[in-house]
UniProtKB/TrEMBL annotation:
GO biological process terms held by the UniProt record: phospholipid biosynthetic process
GO cellular component: plasma membrane
GO molecular function: ATP binding; kinase activity; metal ion binding
Name of the protein in question: Lipid kinase, YegS/Rv2252/BmrU family
Taxon lineage: Bacteria, Pseudomonadati, Bacteroidota, Sphingobacteriia, Sphingobacteriales
SUPFAM superfamilies the record matches: NAD kinase/diacylglycerol kinase-like (SSF111331)
Needed co-factor(s): Mg(2+)
Every DAGKc domain range: 1-131
UniProt keywords, alphabetically: ATP-binding, Kinase, Lipid biosynthesis, Lipid metabolism, Magnesium, Metal-binding, Nucleotide-binding, Phospholipid biosynthesis, Phospholipid metabolism, Transferase
InterPro entries recorded: ATP-NAD_kinase_N, Diacylglycerol/lipid_kinase, Diacylglycerol_kinase_cat_dom, Lipid_Phosphate_FormReg, NAD/diacylglycerol_kinase_sf, YegS/DAGK_C
Species whose genome carries this gene: Pedobacter hartonius
NCBIfam families for this protein: YegS/Rv2252/BmrU family lipid kinase
Length: 299
């Protein structure tokens, strides 16, 4: 069988972890009978997308994101458009999509998954003209990601510290939602649109979400008093938000969200501003991604 050309695109800042030794670890673990490897390090926001586009236009069959959900987003957008195959070596702060797909957090083990070349097709979503693969949304989480951009300390502890500080002053917003033709008005702390079940770090906002059902889960975290934060955290970490009256989950395909004024949204954890009206849609089974055979998903 002909060898596949594989490119590893490494985000040196994701997850706040050093990655200089990554090419050596990949060299030591990659199955050379299947792959010819190449490596690139990203130098700025948007660089992973540029590298991935160029690679997909050349003769790379598999493009691997070494980073978190933001890095995956840039690369997967190009991989999907060119119908190539995405690999993931999780190196982010949260690693939501990787965790959902049961890709090991251990680097050597995640390379073994790539060696297995078990390819599944998963759904992808759009927020206006931008694709998302794990989760997109607005409200407190988007506010945090917009503030976090200027923060030097990445990683989970940085998120948590900033989160507690900002939560004290945050005011829930009113959202008008139209989901497959049905209207809802909700005052919410967060509105998340989930492809996978989790934000990352096993914080599940929509425990029954599937990346192969052709649907997105609109998760409305209602306005709540601060003393209920531990209860919300408990439900997320125990994958039981669907049993909590703090969270409402509505599944759909064609979603419109209108907010009172423009504020940050996030796409796979990275902040953007898109105005007051967001059109959300899903492209069923549109991205090829390497997953562990045990994940029970395959083409
Ligand atoms: N050299 C670089 N300098 C600064 N930013 C970069 C560089 N390379 C990539 N980026 C940006 O880093 C951002 C964060 O990456 P990523 O989301 O993968 O990590 P994370 O936020 O730590 O993890 P997660 O999304 O899993 O919580 C992305 O928006 C990406 O565009």
């Amino acid at each position: 069988m002909a060898k596949s050309n594989i490119l590893f695109i490494i985000n040196p800042i994701s997850g706040g972890k050093d990655k200089l030794k990554i090419p050596a670890i990949i060299d030591a673990n990659l199955d050379r009978s299947k792959f010819n490897p190449n490596y690139s390090f990203t130098e700025y926001v948007g660089h992973a997308a540029e590298i991935a586009e160029e690679a997909a236009n050349k003769n790379f069959d598999v493009i691997v994101a070494v980073g978190g959900d933001g890095t995956i987003n840039e690369i997967a957008t190009k991989v999907m458009q060119q119908q190539k195959i995405l690999g993931i070596i999780p190196f982010g702060s949260g690693n939501g999509l990787a965790r959902f797909l049961k890709i090991p957090m251990n680097t050597a083990k995640s390379i073994q998954v790539i060696n297995g070349l078990n390819v599944a097709k998963i759904d992808t979503g759009t927020f206006n003209d931008k694709f998302f693969f794990n989760m997109a949304g607005m409200g407190f989480d988007a506010h945090i990601s917009s503030v976090f951009v200027g923060n030097k300390k990445r990683g989970l502890s940085g998120y948590l510290k900033l989160g507690f500080k900002e939560m004290i002053n945050y005011k829930p917003e009113t959202y008008h939602l139209l989901i497959d033709g049905k209207g809802y008005t909700r005052k919410a702390f967060v509105v998340s649109v989930a492809n996978s079940s989790q934000y990352g770090n096993n914080a599940h906002v929509s425990p029954r979400a599937s990346v192969t059902d052709g649907l997105l889960d609109v998760c409305i975290i209602k306005s709540f008093p601060l003393y209920k934060i531990p209860l919300l955290a408990y439900h997320m970490l125990n994958a039981s938000t669907d049993e909590s009256d703090m969270v409402e989950i509505i599944r759909g395909k064609d979603i419109r969200i209108t907010r009172v004024e423009d504020a940050a949204i996030h796409i796979d954890g990275e902040p953007f501003f898109m105005g007051r009206d967001i059109a959300v849609s899903v492209s069923p089974l549109s991205l090829n991604v390497i997953v562990p055979a045990e994940a029970g998903m395959t083409i």
